[in-house]
Amino acid sequence: MGNMAADNAAGKRINSLLDAGSFVEIGGAVTARTTDFNMQEKETPADGVITGYGVIDGNLVYVYSQDATVLNGAIGEMHAKKISNIYDMAMKMGAPVIGLVDCAGFRLQEATDALEAFGKLYQKQSMASGVIPQITAIFGTCGGGLSIVPALTDFTFMEAKNGKLFTNTPNAIPGNDISKCDTSSAAFQSETTGLVDGTGSEEDILADIRSLVCMLPCNNEEDSSYEECNDDLNRVCADLANAKEDTAIALTMISDDNIFCEVKKAYAKDMVTGFIKLNGMTVGAVANRSKVYNEEAEVEAEFDGSLSADGAEKAAEFVQFCDAFNIPVLTLTNVSGFTASKYDEKRIAKSAAKLTYAFADATVPKVNVVIGKAFGSAYVTMNSKAVGADMVYAWPDAEIGMMDANQAAKIMYADADAATIREKAAEYKNLQSSPLSAAKRGYVDTIIEAADTRKYVIGAFEMLFTKREDRPAKKHGTV
Q1: Lower Cβ count inside 10 Å, N or C end of the chain?
Q2: Under CATH, what is the fold of the domain 228-395+448-466?
Q3: What would the 3-class secondary structure string for 118-143 be?
Q4: The pTM is what?
Q5: Which of 443, 439, 457, 131 lies closest to 285 in space, CA to CA?
Q6: Class of domain 9-211
Q7: CA–CA separation, 439 vs 444, rounded Å?
């Protein structure tokens, strides 16, 4: 255990996170080196951050944990350099970095030295992005420039009571004070900004991080995320069609042993993102959702089936993460169009473009199951054949086309009577919107029974395992 204080909160968090007895401390003797403002008289053991490595379920990880008892956990030059050092090691070894944050901000006594060292940390994080998974957990304060750290990482968790995440404090925002709206709270940061993937008690968060690490590859080249599958590959999910509205339930049903690791759960709930297991392989899942059910099977939230700006961006970021780490992507499509609201109109074109680009740019295996409506450009955006899906399945009662058949009939036969419109709507549905019509044109590969979805998607990903696909030579896209 090195010389880490086991009774200190920062040390206890590391012990809870890692396999018992596996932590090895690095840089335990490092202290601050500045002498300004009598800093030499202040003890700064480990300069306020415990750094080192250990294992989670046998997987190597690097970890830093801030110690709020040392100058309130304020970040000094050596503190930031220790974290940067952990990043250097993790990049060489190809292992995730987990940051446990509890800190008052920058150390005023070290001014530019602290800022320079911290800027270097931003640079290390940027270089590590897409190479190794980065996870942040916030247990105390994470404010000001430190708020950029979780935003640069892939997944962020936040302790529900004591966690504070902000760039400006709630009281520094004109017209606001903390009693009106606590913009630094776990609720605000998970539900409104979408920066936080999960909230809960300290124990919950550390357990969630352990589960997530076991789901993810250790880096973008080596994949340790496969495991033995003891679930029946051909398992029939008899009630799957009933879960069409709440796709978080549908994804849980088709996954091995019903494992579903949802991310950004409280944000843009009309879009579900998370990781499932299919024949022991981690798969990233993206799905439209029109209803949210709670544990008591009560409807908690309801949406109109359209693609929102927040939902599109949430999905786009998730698909980009999966592509960077060679994680195959499964989509369950049930979308009626784009969300119509002033808030969405400000951003929807750009957000939908980001999602379209993320799917089109991803070279990992991509499988789409149309489980309900697939209307208009929103359907094209949702991992359609047109933007590069490798396999597209549809349930028998799916509707794929330009718009709802009744609306189409009303537009095409504006002056007709109700009986004619009903007749033309039925005709339109049959000719233009049925999955068979899309299958005849090659936009759907196979029409499958809902209950057989697990079997078919496992088969598709097995077939796509050796997929290789080139992209035009360029530095990167600009969407």
Answers
A1: C
A2: 2-enoyl-CoA Hydratase; Chain A, domain 1 (3.90.226)
A3: HHHHHHHHHHHCCCCCEEEEECCEEE
A4: 0.93
A5: 457
A6: alpha beta
A7: 4
